[in-house]
Design brief:
- This protein is an alpha+beta fold and 489 residues long.
- Helix content is 45%, strand content 12%.
- It contains 22 helices and twelve strands.
- It has helices spanning 2-22, 27-32, 40-45, 49-62, 65-70, 72-87, 99-115, 118-124, 126-155, 171-191, 194-198, 201-210, 229-232, 256-260, 282-300, 334-340, 346-350, 383-387, 398-401, 417-420, 427-431, 465-469, and strands at residues 216-219, 239-240, 245-246, 266-269, 307-308, 312-313, 356-358, 368-370, 404-411, 437-443, 446-455, 478-488.
- A hairpin with a 3-residue loop joins strand 5 and strand 6 (312-313).
- Helix 4 packs antiparallel against helix 15 (282-300).
- The termini are far apart.
């Protein structure tokens, strides 16, 4: 029963979290968006004390079930491990905890987190690793399937689906996601939970509390025949059948050992003495665990390319070299983004305007930055602030976003079409949502001279409409330079 409950709830969680990263219609966020906020590290960074307290109490009460039911990377490893067991049964062995590695990695992670060295944090954070895999590797497949359905629907004059452009946001992020998937897949296929119990900082933190959990897996020594099936099926390598001990700091309460024991020598109970003569009906314990984990779910719920008149394809834009990267409205500052963002890329996968993409900067690798080659940050959109689980992008209202300055526009004279081609333009001024740009004579003493844009930096919010809609190619004649600290105007 324990194993069945675990598999059922893990399946629900895995489907929900994966759908969050794949969906581009905002449907998933409205239905299961709260699941992302249940991730432990993200809750800590967001100072979500209710979720933190809930997860710690859950761990003290039931053990490290977080790792097998709530963490999507842990569930993904279980899937690979299940495939490995199909190829070869009874494949695991007991091994002692590699404490120096576990605590060493945790110490490095904490130092990197405090110092704002985002690259180390992104590479070690479990939820972020899964997010990169889902965004870079799975979402394009999902979009391709959607586009096939959209083509079929269009043939029958139906608009049930619409086309979604598939594009590579970052080569670096794509490669890292691929390497992560292969590495974790091989480790889980061969050795089960190696990553969780030697590298993962969240698993190490929760191991401190799971040592003292009320419910643990215990041996009934009188029933045990030392057949070793429990050890050979423990993906955490934490059961020593010779000494009849289970390392609760590494056990993720998957229930596999109980299901394979032919002699009923293993029980999930309050103490070792309960294993042989439990005062609590096992079915009641299973019901209690199921109720607790279902409460988790309840808590969680708190463009096509532009064409020139349809005759010729416009040359793709090239991103300018910004001295200061642009961070989304609600992120407050580059420092806040660096300290809180775990690089899960949920905001990137959810951005409907194709503005966000992973950074290639070594110090902030895979954290979201803004660029306007494919769209601009529309004042009426606040999707990224709604989905961020770590508090790196704070929730921001539409009216507040329209008055938040994340950068300012800069005019590049040598690229401006009225001067290079001798034609009228004014696209930037016409489409500026805050009226921060006006067209003025290029020669102040000659009203007949070509009109060029003049930027009022005090009014500009850095949305990028001017940069995106500028017809100059490949470099826009006007681009947005970021601000280290955002401000209200």
């Amino acid at each position: 029963m324990l194993r069945k409950i675990r598999i059922t709830l893990a399946t629900v969680m895995m489907i929900g979290i994966t759908w969050l990263f794949l969906d581009f219609t905002d449907t998933a966020h409205r239905l299961v968006g709260g699941l992302a906020k249940l991730q432990f590290l993200e809750a800590v960074l967001a100072l979500n004390f209710i979720v933190i307290a809930f997860l710690l109490v859950l761990t003290v009460a039931c053990g490290r079930i977080y790792c097998s039911i709530i963490c999507p990377l842990g569930i993904m490893q279980d899937i690979f491990g299940w495939v490995g067991k199909k190829a070869k049964k009874n494949r695991y062995t007991y091994s002692k905890a590699i404490s120096w590695l576990r605590y060493g990695v945790l110490a490095i992670f904490i130092v990197a987190l405090v110092a704002g060295v985002g690259t180390i944090v992104q590479l070690l954070a479990p939820y972020s690793a899964f997010g990169r895999i889902a965004t870079n590797l799975l979402q394009p497949v999902y979009q391709a399937g959607n586009n096939v359905l959209a083509s079929i629907a269009e043939h029958y004059d139906s608009y049930a689906f619409y086309q979604s452009e598939i594009w590579l946001r970052s080569v670096v992020s794509f490669i890292i996601a691929g390497v992560t998937l292969v590495t974790l897949g091989v480790l889980a296929w061969r050795n089960g939970r190696t990553y969780c119990n030697t590298i993962c900082p969240v698993g190490t933190v929760l191991s401190f509390f799971s040592r003292f959990s009320f419910l643990k897996i215990h041996f009934d020594v009188e029933k045990c025949k030392n057949c070793s099936l429990c050890t050979k099926n423990c993906k955490a390598s934490c059961i020593d059948y010779k000494t009849h001990t289970v390392d609760a700091s590494r056990c993720v309460v998957c229930g596999d050992c109980i299901s394979v024991c032919k002699h009923g020598a293993l029980k999930y109970s309050m103490k070792a003495g309960d294993a042989g003569n439990s005062a609590t009906d096992p079915s009641k314990r299973s019901f209690l665990l199921a109720s607790t984990l279902l409460a988790t779910s309840a808590l969680a719920q708190q463009k096509d390319k532009m064409m020139d008149g349809g005759l010729a394809e416009i040359q793709d834009k090239v991103a300018p070299a910004r001295q200061t990267p642009l961070t989304p409205p609600g992120s407050l500052s580059a420092q806040n983004m660096a300290l809180r963002c775990t690089g899960c890329q949920l905001c990137i996968s959810e951005c409907p305007n194709q503005v966000l993409r992973p950074s290639d900067d070594l110090m902030h690798l895979m954290q979201p930055v803004m660029s306007y080659e494919r769209g601009y940050c529309r004042p009426e959109c606040n999707r990224c602030s709604e989905v961020c689980p770590a508090g790196a992008i704070k929730p921001i209202r539409h009216e507040d976003k329209a008055s938040t300055q994340i950068g300012h526009a800069v005019w590049i004279k040598k690229n401006c079409i009225p001067l290079t081609d001798g034609v009228e333009c004014g696209n930037c001024a016409r489409h500026c949502p805050v009226g921060a740009i006006e067209m003025v004579p290029s020669d102040p003493d000659d009203d007949e001279s070509p009109y060029v844009p003049a930027v009022n930096e005090a009014r500009c919010i850095g949305c990028g409409a001017c940069e995106n809609l500028c017809p100059a190619r490949p470099f826009s004649a006007i681009y947005v330079e970021g601000h280290e600290v955002h401000k209200e105007i």
